[in-house]
Amino acid sequence: MDSKKGFTILEIIIVAVFASLLFIFFFIQKSNIDAMERDEDRKIAINAMYYALEESFYKDHGYYPEAISEENIKVIDPSLWTDPLGFNLGDPKSSYSYEPANCKEGKCKEYILKAQLEKEDTYTKYNRN
Known about the structure:
Layout: H1 9-61, E1 64-65, E2 96-104, E3 107-115, E4 123-126
Antiparallel strand pairs: 1-3, 2-3, 3-4
């Protein structure tokens, strides 16, 4: 009997389809993991801004500023003012926002800090005092 060595076309197609499915699954999962990492970076930045406002700025001044930036909040890492996509707080495209409220002559009694997340609802921090 004559035996031939090698794979049949059907076997090759099955392996190719299986490999393609694994490849697609890998990139979908990688995309989700990357988005979750960016969301965590956003939460870390918002928390840093929050604690800088509460523990540094408010304790020193007794009010909250009308706008925040690295000029008036110097206690946090300057890189945290830029979101994972490269936009600074205050830029319309930034995923970070600072909304002061109840302001008079540049001195505010309240604020809301927000980060638009990709995989979760908006992350929000309100003033403590």
